[in-house]
Design a protein that fits this description.
The complex is a heterodimer.
Chain A lengths: L5 H9 L10 E4 L2 H6 L2 H12 L4 E2 L13 H5 L5 H17 L4 E4 L2 H16 L1 H15 L12 H7 L1 H5 L16 E5 L2 H4 L3 H4 L9 H8 L3 E2 L14 H4 L4 H15 L6 E4 L2 H18 L7 E3 H8 L18 H7 L14
Parallel strand pairs in A: 1-2, 1-3, 4-5, 4-6, 6-7
Chain B lengths: L13 H7 L9 H10 L2 H13 L2 E3 L2 E3 L3 H4 L3 H11 L10 H10 L3 H7 L1 H7 L7 H4 L2 H5 L4 H10 L2 H8 L12 H5 L6 H14 L7 H4 L1 H15 L17 H9 L1 H7 L17 H13 L2 H19 L3 H10 L2
Antiparallel strand pairs in B: 1-2
Classes of the chains: A alpha/beta, B mainly alpha.
Chain lengths: ~350, ~325
Amino acid sequence: MNPYHLAGRESTWQKHIKDIPVDNYFLTLSCILGSFYPASETMVPKVFDLLGLRWATTHTSHNGWSCCTAIGYHGDIMPIEATLLTVARLWALAQEAGMEVITPTCVTSFGTYCECQELLEQEPELRGRIARLLKDTCGRKLVIPRRLAHVSDVYYQHRERLAGHFQYRLIEAATGRPLRVVDHIGCHYAKLFPQRHAVGGSEYCDVLAGMVRTWGGENVDYPERRHCCGMGFRQCMIPPNRGATMASVHKKLKSMAPFKPDLIVTNCPGCQVFMDKEQWAVHEMTGEKYFIPVITYQELAGILLGWDPYEVVGIDFHTVPVEPLLDKIGIPYDREKSWHREP
Amino acid sequence: MRQTEHMSIEYDTQSFLDLITRRNPDDAAWRDLRRRLDAMSDAELTDLYYRLRDACQVSEQGLVYPNIQNLHATPFEREKDRREQRPLVEQDSLSEVACWYREARDKSCVWWLENHVIARHALSSCMNCGACTALCPAAEFNEFNPRAIMSLVQEKDETSIVELLKSDTIWFCHQCGSCKTKCPRQNSPFGMISSLRQLSQLKGYHVQSIRGRQQYFARHFWGGNLWNRACTLYFRNPDPERHKDFGPRFAAYFRAKEEYLRRIGAQPDMEGHLSGRKVAPETLEELRKLWTAGGAVYFWSLIEEAAARQAAQAGMTIDEYHNHVMSEG
C-alpha cells in the first residue's frame, strides 16, 4: 500500500475510527469529578435527555453503582482480581438494567474497563475464576461487554445534533474569530488502547478536537500536547508527592502559552483538577500567571447550550475564573449569583 | 455531630464524640484517644460507628446523613476498619484469591514475575529500546528509568529485584501508560511496575523506603473510602489545609461544599445516584464481599501488619505512624 496514496491514507485513518454505540448507555460516575466538578456529572443526564437517548443508571439499595476501584488499583492497594470483580459487578448491573454499553464519566474508569475487558478475553482461566467468584459471592453473571464508550464518546458521536441546540458557538463575539482551544485528552482514554478504544488513536485523538471543530473553535497543537498532566494517583493524592504533578502541569502551560489559547478543554476528571488548580500553585511558586480557563467538555457544552453558568454549569467550582471566557463568547451571566466575592 | 436532637443514638458524653472524630495529630488528646479506642470491644466500637453513620435527618433536601462528615478519615474509622476486617483474613476464612497471594509471599520474586498475571504479560516483550523512558513524565522529574527496571527484572536476579523492591524507585511511576503507547511492541512497563509495587507490599519490603511506606496512608485513604463509601475519593477529602496549592477559591468552595453541590443538583451524603450520594448499606455489603473474595482485604491486612511492626520499632502509635508517613518525604 502506498501510504501517500489518498486511498491508502483513508484506509490508515479507518483503523482509528471508533464504532461508538449510539444508544443504550449505562452511566457510571467518577469519584474525582463528583468531588471537584460535580456539575459536569449532573449535566450528563440532562444532555442525554435533551438528545432523547436511551440511558439508565441504578441506585436501588441492592443494585447501587460503585466506584470502579481504579484509583486503588493504580495506587496499588487493590489486587487485580478485586478490581476485576468490582468491574464485573458494574457490567452485570448494566446488563440487568437492559443497557449494552457501560458509559463512565471517568477516564480512569474507562481505561480500567478496557484493561479488564482485554485481560478477561486473553486469560480464559482468569475469566472462569472471576465468573465463578462473582456468581458465588453475589449471584451475578459475568458478561464481558462487546463495546465500551466514554461519555465523551457519546458527546462526540452526537456533537452535531448537540450543536443544533446551542445558543452560542466557540467564536469571540467582538471579532468573530474562532476561539483557540487546547485539548487535553487524558492518558487512560487515549494511550492504553489507542487503536481499539480511542477516537482517532493517541497521537491525533479526535474526541475533543472533533467537538471543538464542530462547535466553531480552532484546535491548537503545541509541543507538549500529549504530555501527561502528572496526576499520577499516588503523586497527586499523597501530599509530599504533589511536586511531580505541579511540575508536569507547569511544563504543559509553558509549552502552550506561546500559542495563546483561549481555553483548555479536558476529558479526564483528574487532568481537569490539576490543569485548573495547579495554575494557582504555579503562579504562587514561580510568579508566572497563566490563568487559562480549564473546562470539561460537559461544561463547554453546558455554556454553549446557554445553561446558567453558576446554577447549572457550576463555574464557581473552578480555581481559574471562567467568566473571562464567557465574556469572550458573549454569554451573559449574573455576577450576583457567584459565590465568590473577589473580582 | 451537633444535631443531637436528630440522632437516635445514646452515648456517654459529647466530649467523647468530639474526641473520636478528631483528625489533628498534634492534639494533646491523641494518645488518650488511642487508649479509649483500645478499651472498647470490637462489637462496641463497630456498633457505635454504624449507629453514628446511619443517624439521619430529614431536611429541605430530603434525607441526609449529617454524621458521615465527622467519621471519615478519623482514627476511629481506621480502627473500626481494622477490627472489622481482621476476622475476614483469619487462616480458615481466606478466599482462594487471598490464599494464592499468601502462598506467593513465600515464593521467590522471580516466581512472581513469571506467575502474576500483570507481570507475566509485561515480562518478555521488552527489547530495551528505551522509548518508554524517552517520554516518561515521571522520568523527567525523578530518578526513574522504566527501561532500566524492565532490564533488571528480565535479568531475573533475585538479589537485585529485592533491592529494587526496597527502594523508592518503583513508586515514582505515574501509572499514566505513556510507555505502553510508545512501545514498539505495545508492552506495558507501567503494568510491570504496578505488579512490582504489589510484590513489594506482599513481602513487606515497601516500608524500607519513604515512598513505599506511604502505602499505609493509601491503604486507609483509598481503602477506607472504598470500605465505607464505595468510592476511592470522597468529596470531603481534599481539605484546603492540606491542599494549599489549590488556592483561595477552592478553599471558599470547600467551606460551603454541601450548598455548592446541592445547588447544581448533586447529592452530598444524601440518597440518590448522583455525585456525593450515600451508598446504600446493602450495596456496600455486596462490594465488601467482592473485595474480600478478590484478595483486597487480605492485601490490606499485610500493609497493616508491616506498618504495625515498623511503628512499634519506632515507638509510635499506629495513628502517629499514619500521620508520619502521609507527610514524610
